[in-house]
Design a protein that fits this description.
- This protein has 42 helices and 23 strands.
- By secondary structure, it is of the alpha+beta class.
- Strands 16, 17, 21, 22 and 23 form a 5-stranded antiparallel beta sheet that branches.
- The chain starts with a helix and ends with a helix.
Length: 1282
């Protein structure tokens, strides 16, 4: 038998050929055509009709009418027909086979019934049927018909073909009529020709397509009972994907895109309103200042006491003395009005040196400017103002006096925390990272794995031509991937990969075998390796005959369920899996540009170690082949590849990360001290060793936090390891700078006053420093700790883990800084006051007043002065920052969600090529299962009417809902009609005579000898018997030689149902479908949401079953269901917590606390908006970074506001200037510059993850926080201090 005949699907062709058979035979007008008389009636054996000259029609009885309603409903109401009962019964069996092919389109199915029923039932068959070949059987005197001519009008022929030409079969998804044509080239002429041109039937029918309604005396069959594919038949319509004329239903999907037509005008309007408000307030302030400046201020005394008296009249409790280095010497005047002690070389301000009558200076406060809610003097406020400094002073004295006990206590506390490292572990499991233990997806994954098991792992080889070419064969031009030389190279690589061994373990030992325990005869052939070579029986020799293998590939691409096209493991090699790069709409498979080869490996844990080694061997082999085959573009992936490459990227960037931290450490050590012109003076005032001590404290805090959380069994994530040190270093170094600059300021003041500096003064100096800086330190640290502690309320384990570690690390950092670091400052003061150099402690130098560093000089002498020079500058700053924040808030709805897999890969990863090809060339995505079980937890009787209806037959059934969403263009990520083991068993396997055979209660499998077996009873079977048949179907291995049943469910449905112990009901089952190509995080998120909508719709209409959708990636993307709410709640909670803590720590000054909250909120909002135009998506990593931005913003703004509230300057502008001079240098030098030094290095990281989420995002966070702190917040306090 030649190749074309071997490729015919015998059973299906027998069914279809029973409808119409076309054969060019000699015409013989041997029979009389009498109106109202049948010329074909009954059966003469082998599906051949008997010829009759003048046979009377049959008047159907009730049983006959019932058969007609099933087989030929268009003739059920006729008074007489030509078809006998036995013909109808045979026809019904064959229709079940045809229904699997074209049943998806009711109109097509009806049309086939119509022309077949007209052939042997219509009493006017003599008008369009002519017998051309018949033989008289001498034994029974019956005339057997071997050839007929079937006349049909051109319009009817065209409508039938058009109704069916795009219909896909429910088995493989291929074009149904390809099974008839035996070739992918199935136009109308070929279709009608091949209906009868085959070797499986003796009946030959020549189809004569007539242009008129009458040919000679013959009246061709017309289209009176023919429907077009878009028509509704019996209340059912054709699948819109199978009908060109039908528009697929559009299920309205919620539009989540930002409508800039509305948001842009809203944003501009808000900016305009804000601008008007600021300008109105500016003019109001200026007019009030002008009215208050009409009077002059008379200073009658040169002495300080007179000045203090006048200050008292101006509601100012202090006199301000400006030191020679620009520092404010805030000393309260004695109550008796005498002048405080003042060095002789520090003169009074010129404006106060003579008794005269003068006008206020431009920088002098007006009466209006003095009215500030922030500086109210009620008893509660005074209590809190005194409490913080007193605690700081008392604690400093305790540390100084009992330093050895403090060190011992800190050592014990640190050791206890670090003891948890015995239980330390790092997790990279996405399920453990992104889903909580009680999350829906996680529970569904556990249920799914327990019910159906983890089936397999996949490794994939993808090969393309580097230089695309074409190949001519069979008078066609196909793409170069079908060139025999190209195919041979791919085949050889496939075979060599299958030959890879790990010790004594072979690929055959590790591969996934769908037949499992059902078949032990051909273990290697049972491996589920999917490739186009399965269509060629994995026979390399066929590649030597391009004409034949191209023809076969064309056929199998369209009809993968043909027995000869089935893979060695008895399952189909789906076209959209083994070919890629073809047009997804036109489905021109021979235009494919990519050949994927998929290796499926066993998913059991027992073989995992060997499988991991085999995957490594495959990777090494293919990396070698990339260099050896320069004409091929080779890409590949293994199940462990992504995790391996992420791990490699992490190791590759270790140097970059370490360098980043080293540079920050060096910067802290170099810039912590003050500048000096001489080398010795510079080393004397240097704080390098002290800076190293501060950095070590930061590291100890991080290590202690990791140990403390390990006690509780919490796994550590890479996010924690990468972000926590950065966070603690950022906020911790700020406190280090504040403390060191505080002590340096005291030293400068003592030098100016020519006081003696020796070891006996250290206790008082430390007390004064802690009295000054402790309130701001505890304010910022407590705000951050409370904010991060509340961040642990998140449902995402990775965010919870970060929050726990951040809170503990901040607490430890505060404890160690206010104790151990204070002791280190004491030691460093002893060194400095004794004249010993830093680092080179054996050398000495004279202690002189150091120069200010460039940052300190810039902030104090330039920035603080000119930023607040007049009211217009703050007004402009407020307008700019307000509009900037409004614009960013308008952008927030357009913030993308997700984390692209390629971001986590190193720039030289081999997976980048694989993902690119997969995204552009693949035509199918991951599979999706719709798991069903009963609502009340009891076993399901799937054949009970209500249950069967909700699963299969009702309009809102699970299967039809999957189909409806699969048809909708709006839901492009759900494809396919859904595969149901119940429907396939009932419609295909059970009613096919060669499939179900038994020997009593024992099943006779299709692939074994059935001697002594009989066909399973098909009528009057009980529910128990159906369940027995169902289990036989699931264990039946399909045949591939065309001689038996090829519909067994052992390959496709082996794990589709979990039966009850009685085997008479189903505990749970699953229907399967597929997602479309998922190329981005957005597509994964949307695909999951679309599948969940299907389950939700079924559940809303169901009273019996409960359904959930599951795919392997669902647990990882569940976080995006709530991440927007998580982000909003976390930021809101942390910001509100910051406000409450600030409110308490600032002496219940509501306005001051609101200033802190405003600055933090604006930083967070600006960061969210910046993520849009910086292309930073929202995910767990960026959420952690957003919480980090809140912490840094709190550190910045709390210090400024606290300095403002405690300032003894007069007037908002002077208070804001003083706050900026006092804390600005520490903020810029401490946090900002330290972070910038470390972050810039991360731009050189190989992983896009570091570049995007650590360099790009950290850099932006620093810029925004610094800008809001040293530009916006001082301007706001000066402008709206009241």
């Amino acid at each position: 038998m030649n190749l074309s005949n071997r490729l015919l699907f015998k059973q299906i062709v027998l069914a279809v050929c029973l409808l119409v058979r076309v054969h060019a035979a000699d015409y013989t007008d041997a029979y009389t055509h009498v109106p109202g008389q049948c010329i074909l009636q009954n059966s003469c054996g082998s599906s051949l009709p008997c010829a009759q000259n003048t046979s009377d029609p049959i008047t159907p009885d009730e049983d006959h009418i019932a058969l007609l309603n099933t087989a030929c409903p268009m003739y059920a109401t006729e008074e007489s027909v030509c078809c006998a009962k036995d013909q109808l019964q045979d026809f019904i069996k064959q229709l079940d086979v045809v229904k699997n092919i074209i049943g998806g389109c009711e109109a097509c199915y009806w049309d086939f019934q119509a022309i077949e029923c007209a052939f042997f039932c219509d009493i006017n068959q003599h008008q369009f049927i002519q017998i051309t070949n018949a033989t008289l059987n001498a034994t029974d005197s019956k005339t057997t018909v071997f050839g007929v001519r079937y006349f049909i009008t051109r319009d009817a022929a065209k409508r039938i073909y058009n109704a069916c030409k795009n219909v896909r079969d429910s088995i493989s998804g291929g074009i149904g009529i390809v099974y008839v044509c035996g070739s992918a080239d199935c136009d109308q002429d070929t279709f009608y020709l091949k209906l009868g041109d085959n070797a499986y039937t003796q009946l030959k029918i020549e189809f004569v397509i007539a242009d008129t309604s009458t040919v000679d005396y013959v009246k061709p069959y017309t289209d009176k009972d023919i429907y077009d594919c878009q028509d509704t038949v019996n209340g059912k319509t054709c699948n819109c994907l199978d009908c060109e004329e039908k528009i697929c239903p559009i299920i309205v999907e919620e539009d989540t895109t930002v409508n800039w037509h509305y948001t842009l005008p809203i944003g501009l309007a808000l900016c305009l309103v804000w601008m008007v408000v600021v300008l109105v307030l500016t003019f109001r302030h200026k007019s009030k200042r002008a009215s208050n400046n009409t009077d002059t201020i008379e200073i009658k005394s040169v002495g300080a006491g007179g000045l203090d008296n006048k200050a008292a009249e101006l509601n100012s409790p202090v006199s301000i003395h400006e030191t020679s280095n620009g520092q404010n010497d805030n000393r309260t005047s004695p109550s008796n009005g005498t002048s405080p002690t003042r060095p002789n070389n520090v003169p009074l301000s010129p404006s106060l040196s003579v008794a005269s009558t003068i006008s206020p200076l431009p920088n002098s406060p007006s009466e209006y400017e003095n009215k500030s809610l922030i500086t109210r003097k009620d008893p509660l406020h005074q209590f809190w103002l005194r409490l913080g400094p007193r605690i700081g002073e008392a604690w400093s004295n305790i540390v100084y006096d009992y330093w050895y006990l403090v060190l011992l206590a800190c050592f014990i506390l640190t050791a206890l925390c670090c003891g948890g490292w015995y239980n330390f572990r790092i997790t990279t499991d996405p399920v453990e990272l992104w889903t909580s233990e009680d999350s829906v997806s996680r529970m569904q994954k556990i249920d799914y794995d327990s019910q159906f098991g983890t089936t397999y792992r996949t490794c994939q080889l993808v090969v393309k031509e580097k230089s695309p070419s074409t190949f001519g064969v069979n008078s066609k031009i196909v793409n170069g991937v079908f060139n025999p030389e190209f195919l041979k190279q791919v085949y050889d690589m496939m075979v060599e990969i299958e030959s890879l061994n790990v010790g004594d373990v072979t690929y055959s030992d590790l591969c996934y075998k769908p037949l499992g325990e059902f078949n032990k005869t051909h273990p290697k052939e049972d491996c589920a390796t999917l490739s186009v070579f399965q269509w060629l029986d994995n026979d390399r020799s066929l590649l030597d005959n391009p004409a034949e293998y191209i023809k076969r590939m064309e056929l199998c691409a369209e009809a993968t369920a043909l027995p000869e096209c089935l893979a060695s493991f008895r399952g189909p090699s789906a076209t959209n899996i083994v070919l890629g790069g073809y047009d997804a709409v036109k489905l021109n498979y021979m235009d494919s540009t990519t050949l994927p080869v998929t290796f499926a490996l066993d998913g059991s844990a027992a073989k995992l170690d060997d499988i991991l080694k085999w995957e490594t061997a495959m990777k090494e082999y293919l990396l070698e082949q990339i260099g050896r085959r320069p004409d091929l573009k080779i890409a590949f992936s293994t199940d462990r590849a992504l995790e391996d490459e992420i791990d490699r990227a992490s190791h590759a960037d270790i140097f970059t990360i370490v360098l980043s931290y080293i540079l920050m450490f060096v910067y802290v050590g170099v810039t912590l001290g003050d500048m000096d012109c001489s080398v010795k003076g510079c080393l004397l005032n240097s704080k390098a060793l002290l800076g190293v001590g501060g950095v070590v404290i930061v590291l100890v805090s991080v290590v202690s936090a990791l140990g403390a959380t390990s006690y509780a069994g919490l796994p550590t994530t890479l996010i924690v390891i990468e972000v926590i040190p950065f966070l603690i270093l950022a906020v911790g170094v700020d406190n280090v700078y504040i403390m060191v600059q505080g002590i340096q300021r005291i030293i400068c003041e003592k030098i100016e006053r020519e006081e003696t500096l020796n070891s006996s003064a250290i206790r008082g100096m430390l007390s004064s420093m802690m009295r000054d800086v402790f309130p701001s330190m505890i304010l910022s640290s407590l705000c951050q700790m409370v904010a991060f502690a509340l961040g642990s309320l998140s449902f995402m384990p990775s965010v919870q883990n970060f929050a726990y570690n951040a809170t503990i690390a901040l607490l430890m950092n505060f404890i160690l800084q206010t104790s151990v670091f204070l002791i280190l400052i004491r030691v460093d003061l002893l060194r400095q006051l004794s004249g010993r150099l830093d680092i080179l402690c054996c050398m000495k130098a004279k202690l002189n007043k150091p120069d200010r560093g460039p940052v300190k000089w810039f902030i104090e002498e330039f920035w603080a002065r000119y930023l607040l020079l007049n009211k217009w500058i703050p007004a402009f700053i407020l307008i700019f920052f307000g509009c900037f924040t409004i614009g960013n808030v308008m952008l927030i709805p357009d913030l993308k969600l997700g984390l692209e897999p390629t971001m986590a890969l190193p720039s030289d990863s081999y997976l980048l090529d694989y993902y690119h090809i997969a995204y552009t060339d693949y035509r199918i995505g991951p599979g999706v299962s719709f798991v069903f079980k009963s609502r009340d937890g009891t076993p399901l009787d799937v054949y009970e009417d209500n249950t069967y209806g909700e699963l299969i037959s009702n309009q809102n059934s699970l299967l039809k809902t999957i189909r409806k969403y699969g048809e909708s263009p709006s839901y492009q990520y759900i494809i396919g009609e859904g595969s149901s083991f119940i429907k396939y068993f009932s419609d295909s396997w059970l009613d096919s005579e060669p499939c179900c055979w038994n020997d009593g209660d024992e099943f006779c499998p299709s692939i074994k000898d059935r001697s002594g077996c009989s066909v399973c009873p098909q009528t009057n079977i009980t529910t128990d018997t159906k369940y027995q048949y169902l289990q036989w179907f699931i264990s039946d291995i399909p045949r591939t030689d065309g001689s038996g049943c090829s519909k067994g469910g052992a390959v496709s449905y082996a794990n589709s149902a979990k039966f009850s112990p009685s085997n008479r009901s189903v505990l749970s089952g699953r229907f399967t479908s597929s997602h479309g190509v998922l190329a981005t995080s957005h597509s994964f998120i949307t695909a999951r949401q679309q599948a969940l909508l299907i389950a939700e719709e079924v559940n809303s209409n169901s009273m019996v079953i409960q359904v959930y959708a599951y795919s392997s990636f669902y647990p990882y993307y569940e976080q995006y269901d709530t991440i927007v709410r998580e982000c909003a709640v976390n930021l809101a909670v942390t910001i509100v917590a910051t406000f409450l803590v600030a409110l308490v720590m600032l002496g219940f000054q509501v306005y001051a606390a609101l200033c802190v909250m405003l600055s933090v909120t604006m930083c967070a909002a600006d960061m969210l908006g910046s993520m849009v135009y910086l292309n930073i998506p929202l995910n767990a990593i960026s959420l952690v970074n957003l919480l980090l931005s809140v912490g840094i913003a709190v550190e910045f703004s709390a210090n400024i506001v606290q300095a403002y509230t405690t300032s003894k300057e007069v007037g908002r502008t002077n208070k804001a200037r003083h706050a900026l001079r006092k804390t600005g240098p520490a903020i810029v030098s401490g946090i900002a510059m330290t972070n910038f030094v470390g972050v810039i290095v991360l731009a050189a990281a190989k992983s896009q993850l570091f570049v995007v989420f650590y360099f790009r995002m950290f850099f932006t966070i620093n810029v925004l926080c610094v800008a809001h702190t040293i530009i916006f917040l001082p301007a706001f306090l000066a402008f709206l201090g009241d």
